[in-house]
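Inverse folding, one chain.
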């Protein structure tokens, strides 16, 4: 007797996304189960960021199904989505450079209310300082004075302050030196070991394939290929996706 499959944490079903007349996503369907790391690969302009932004509700106009924990997200505000358990680490990090590291982290906590919220915030800060040494050593420093890699760690920590079930990471290695990229991916690996469910957009294909359970290739707004890293890793489609070609 087989038990019914649990509801995926995220379900995207035939999602279309538009910026006015520009169609950024075409009938995109994918799902992410709890504990999975799913990578989204594709050329510039393929629609990766649009999908991330559609999930958190700050992006384009969408139609189609988008469910978190089985709950339809249409009509749910971005703030409510964060409270429902999804957080985005945006491309380019978007920290407040003239605020301290700790104040940047507290921004990730603005939606937290109710009994015990203050002590939970203090507990989270303690936990994150263990995970990210940069927070421990420099929490009073202005975020704008940090290196790119350190800023990326702060951006990830800020997202974790909302205690997400699903973490969306948009090009975390962008603009970082190879050594620093390794550090960022070590952090992502630690989160994976702790059971964090993640959707990862990444231009560093090798790093993405090394950490993902499953991958989707996006080209011109459509998913053109899906599978495990082994299944799609050496396929020429992966290369053509990076030159923006669509699968025929
Ligand atoms: P990149 O790696 O360059 O960030 P991407 O795969 O994340 O690319 P998107 O940024 O999602 O791609 O862009 C998908 C399409 O939507 C592109 O054609 C882009 O020009 C368009 N687009 C993105 N943002 C906007 C916007 N704010 N207004 C109009 N068009 C947009």
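Residues assigned per position:
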């Amino acid at each position: 007797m087989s038990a019914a499959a649990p509801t995926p944490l995220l379900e995207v079903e035939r999602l279309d996304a538009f910026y006015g007349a520009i169609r950024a996503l075409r009938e995109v369907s994918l799902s992410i189960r709890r504990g999975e790391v799913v990578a989204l690969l594709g050329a510039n302009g393929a629609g990766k960021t649009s999908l991330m932004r559609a999930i958190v509700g700050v992006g384009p106009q969408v139609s189609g199904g988008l469910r978190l924990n089985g709950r339809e997200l249409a009509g749910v505000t971005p703030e409510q989505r964060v409270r429902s358990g999804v957080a985005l680490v945006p491309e380019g990090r978007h920290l407040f450079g003239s605020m301290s590291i700790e104040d940047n982290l507290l921004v990730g906590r603005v939606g937290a209310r109710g009994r015990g919220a203050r002590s939970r915030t203090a507990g989270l800060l303690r936990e994150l300082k263990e995970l990210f040494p940069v927070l421990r050593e420099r929490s009073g420093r202005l975020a704008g004075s940090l290196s790119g890699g350190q800023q990326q760690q702060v951006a990830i920590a800020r997202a974790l302050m909302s205690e997400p079930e699903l973490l969306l990471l948009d090009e975390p290695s962008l603009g970082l030196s190879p050594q620093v990229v390794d550090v960022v991916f070590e952090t992502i690996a630690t989160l994976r070991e702790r059971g964090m469910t993640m959707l990862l957009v990444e231009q560093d294909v090798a790093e993405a394939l090394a950490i993902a359970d499953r991958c989707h290739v996006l080209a011109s707004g459509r998913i053109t290929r899906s599978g495990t890293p082994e299944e799609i890793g050496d396929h020429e489609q992966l290369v053509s996706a990076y030159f923006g070609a669509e699968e025929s």
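The first strand starts at residue 10 and ends at 19. The CA atoms of residues 100 and 165 lie 26 Å apart.
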